[in-house]
Design a protein that fits this description.
By secondary structure, the chain is of the alpha+beta class. It has two helices and 16 strands. The longest helix has 37 residues, at 252-288.
């Protein structure tokens, strides 16, 4: 299925959910989708600056992604670029590292994301003001304790300025989000030490990813550093499951027997339905005679 067809099907379903599959109250005016834009900023572990938009439509029962929408990203009034939202409704724009961003008087970067609207989806926009911050992370073991040291500073003409009094956290990835495993407040020198737990499961070798992160900060957005360490407990592989009456994998003879029985039952149902149609057909023929 092409992306265009996929987008069309999703948007038609959303229009139906929005309008309750009823005709509009006023004439033939089409009911358009009212989108929700989640606009965020991420500075990743490689110091790439990424503008992220997620486009969805929220009904009373479900939140559905809006794919195929062209999102325009701006720095002040300068168009940075356009990105089409994917199947999950997400559009990411990576700012080139050597691109000189426009900053306002307080040194922050004004960003905006805009969708101009189309025949199915209404227009919408979002704004962000981001102050650039540099984040550092070191991992070490001291006297049997696992310690994550995080440091943050603001760039200036006179050199790095330590960030103090701001909350920062340590995370590990989980299936659909991040799990916080420790939180601290940056001291006057711009650093904080956070003890890492000893009982977190890793992979089969005990490896896991440690993330130091400003998460949805009102000034910095999302800024993170990641590093893989052997700081988790080893997860042993489960023994193979054999077919038996007491396991989740039933014996082959039981599956075959049940399949034959079910086939017989459904066969009788189908035979009865066909017989009823034949009786009705014969009855109509006899009535015409």
């Amino acid at each position: 299925m092409s992306k265009a067809i996929y987008r069309y099907i999703i948007l038609i379903i959303l229009v139906g959910l929005s309008s309750g599959f009823n005709l509009p109250a006023q004439g033939d005016e089409q009911v358009k989708i009212n989108p929700y834009m989640l606009f965020t900023y991420l500075k990743d572990t490689d110091s790439q600056r990424i503008l992220q938009v997620k486009m969805t439509h929220i009904t009373k029962t479900i939140e559905m992604p809006l794919p195929g929408l062209t999102i325009q990203f701006y720095n002040n009034e300068t168009l940075l670029g356009e990105v089409i939202s994917n199947e999950a409704g997400i559009a990411n724009y990576i700012i080139e590292k050597d691109f000189l961003l426009y900053a306002i008087d307080d040194g922050s970067w004004p960003f905006s994301a805009r969708f101009s609207g189309d025949s199915i989806v209404d227009a919408t926009s979002g704004e962000l003001s981001i102050t650039d911050v540099n984040l550092g992370m070191t991992l070490a073991e001291e006297e049997g304790r696992k310690i994550v040291t995080l440091s943050a500073s603001l760039p200036s003409a006179k050199g790095p300025v330590p960030v103090s009094g701001e909350e920062i956290s340590v995370y590990i990835p989980r299936m659909f989000s991040l799990l916080s495993v420790g939180t601290g407040v940056l001291e006057d020198d711009g650093s904080v030490q956070i003890e890492f737990p000893d009982d977190l499961p890793g992979d089969s070798e005990g490896n896991l990813t440690v993330i130091g992160r400003f998460n949805d900060h009102y000034l910095y957005g999302n800024v993170e550093k990641r590093e893989q360490m052997k700081w988790g407990t080893e997860v042993k592989k489960a023994p193979p499951i054999y077919r038996s009456l007491w396991s989740t994998l039933a014996p082959t003879w039981m599956i075959v027997t049940l399949s034959i029985m079910l086939t017989g039952v459904w066969g009788h149902y189908i035979f009865v339905i066909i017989s009823l149609f034949r009786i009705k057909k014969d009855g109509l023929k006899n009535a015409k005679k």
